[in-house]
Amino acid sequence: MYNSARMEGRSDRQGLIRDRRDALIALALTGIIATMTFRAAFLPSPHHSHWLVPLVFSLPVWALWAVNVAFYGYLVWLCVVFFRVAIGKERVLVAGWFLLILLSPIQSLVSTSAAAAIQYIKAVSIAVALVAALLLVIERANWRQGFV
Fold first, then answer.
1. Cβ(125)–Cβ(100) below 8 Å
2. pTM over 0.85
3. Which spans in the chain are helix H?
4. Which pLDDT tens digit goes with each residue over 52-93?
């Protein structure tokens, strides 16, 4: 008996990245973020906000802080959930993203030299995630697309 999921080119595999399309999407998104992180690390701008919602908005400062803290809390929660679902190299990918997300708000609260060090740590973490995403694409490309 043939499994219909295998006949259609899908796998029965658990985890976040189940097929080649998912792996390519993960590689593309990680590549975009890696490019931005490398640019920030090696071509720094003198004025750059690390907050997702800039504090130069028309809302009161306390409200913007609350929005930023709530959103970062949600992102950390998502990273934990994704890490629990991920398997193998997917966990390396999620861990690289998690470190990037975790360090971004801290970077705006520390001294300039510490912020520069954090930027390099973020660059290394997303580079590791990029390599993991590339390995996932290569691994998924080698999967059989069904029974012949």
1. yes
2. no
3. 4-7, 20-42, 61-85, 89-107, 112-141
4. 555 565 777 788 788 888 988 898 899 899 999 999 899 999
Is the CB of residue 46 less than 8 Å from the CB of residue 116? no
* CA dist 34 → 15, 53, 74 (Å): 23, 20, 21
Q: Which two tokens stand for residue 24?
A: 């390519």
Tell how far CA 128 is from the center of its chain: 11
Q: Sign of the C-alpha dihedral, residues 6, 80, 72, 38?
A: negative
Do 92 and 129 contact (CB within 8 A), yes or no? yes
C-alpha span between 54 and 31 (Å, rounded): 24
